Amino acid sequence: MTVVIDCNIFVMCLTSASPYHFIYQSLISGKFNLAVTGDILLEYEEIVQRKYSITTAQTFITLLNELPNVFYMRTHYQWKLIIMDPDDNKYCDCAIAGQATYIVTEDKHFDILKDIPFPSVTTITIDQFLKILQSA
Question: pTM of the entire structure?
Fold first, then answer.
């Protein structure tokens, strides 16, 4: 299973005190593949640095660059599926390029994807993703 994970999901699961930390641990143990782009990695670094620290952000990005189940996608086409927050389109474009099973997000801007038949992009919540991982 390959997924694209919205930045705020990682913010919610990095700390070991989080009920969602299992998602982070599952990534490290290779239970799923993560598709990213350069723009997504830059956003991860920026937001994690803002929420935690520079050191945490750098360590997290280094980890992602070294994990064998993290795949860098080159998006050759911009689908522009999300109008309300165009910055979120990088996740859609990555999911399409990487043939991701899901985009994991809590962002309501992604709800528009349910009404777009092509290209098909499936979103799930953090709770749904956690259940999938725990049942695997």
Answer: 0.92
Two tokens at 1?
């299973």
| Sign of the torsion angle spanned by Cα atoms 93, 96, 99, 100 | positive
82-118 pLDDT tens trace: 777 778 889 999 999 999 999 999 987 777 778 776 7
pLDDT at 48 over 80: yes
Structure tokens at 24: 């982070």
Residue whose pair of structure tokens reads 């952000």 in the numeric block: 57
Helices 21-28 and 126-135 pack at an angle, to 10 degrees, of 50
Using the CB atoms, write b or e for 29-54: b if 16+ within 10 Å: eeebbbbbbeebbebbbebbbebeee
| Reported confidence tier of residue 77, pLDDT bands at 50, 70, 90 | low
- Which CATH code of 3.40.50.2300, 3.30.70.270, 3.90.930.1, 3.40.50.1010 fits the domain covering 2-135? 3.40.50.1010
End-to-end CA distance of the chain: 11
